[in-house]
Amino acid sequence: MVHPKNRWLESISIEQLNTIWSPESEGKIMKWSDVNPEWPEEDIKLFGRGQDSGTYDYFTTEVTGKTRSSRQDYTASEDEEFLAAKIAADKNSLGFFGIGAYHRHWDTLRLVPVDSGGGPIYPSIETASEGTYTPFTRPLYLYVKQDALQEKPYLKPFLEHYYSNLNQWIHFTGYLPLSEAKYQQVLQTLKTATPKATTAAADR
Q1: CB 177 within 8 A of CB 130
Q2: Does pTM surpass 0.70?
Q3: Which residues contact 79 (CB under 8 A, 6 or more apart)?
Q4: Does residue 9 sit in helix, strand or coil?
């Protein structure tokens, strides 16, 4: 996300994100023009999730190539409302967090599409479910003990109801639904109750 008045950043590549966020960039990549000479010679103000966050772990893995490895001179917080407010207050800001916070502040923030090699892609229900918003679409899982399915007769009907209706409301929570085909695959897994059953619930 960036400030709405940022009009020079039409899209950003994984390589450019690595240039900005890698540990080696701290103290060196400080201005937008340090990343691209066509961008303004203005200080980049960086914001993102804190280091206790799974979002931070995933972001650093995909951007810098090493989990929990990034520059440390950025404003970090587990509070997405705080981050959204900070980004919305500075036209030189750049930040990352889950898509749900953007949906709550779409009128004060601007999404930047990410180019991972196939052209710029915006995050959306369609690109998440199709798997085209890469590499920042990740599945989240529910893990179900096989013994619990057998010992608790109410659990299986609950899960079948949950997955049969999940894609109708999950996006209201800030998560994006998977494709209908994937939910049907999960339901089939529940039906056969294979050992060590794991089920993907949503993308974030």
Answers
A1: no
A2: yes
A3: none
A4: coil
Q: Assess whether pLDDT exceeds 70 at residue 203.
A: no
76: helix, strand or coil: strand
Residue with tokens 């010992």: 151
pLDDT confidence band for 201 (50 / 70 / 90): low
Condensed to tens digits (0 to 9), the pLDDT of residues 29-45 reads 999 999 999 999 999 99
CATH 3.40.190.10 placement within the chain = 12-130
Beta bridge mates, 48 = 76, 96
Distance between CA atoms of 1 and 80, rounded to whole angstroms?
A: 12
Whether the per-residue pLDDT at 198 is higher than 70: the answer is no
State the first-to-last Cα distance of the chain, in angstroms, to the nearest integer.
Answer: 15
Q: Which residue blocks in 119-201 are alpha helix, DSSP H?
A: 125-130, 146-151, 155-165, 180-192
Query: How would CATH label the architecture of 12-130?
Result: 3-Layer(aba) Sandwich (3.40)
- Angstrom distance (rounded) from CA 95 to CA 83: 8
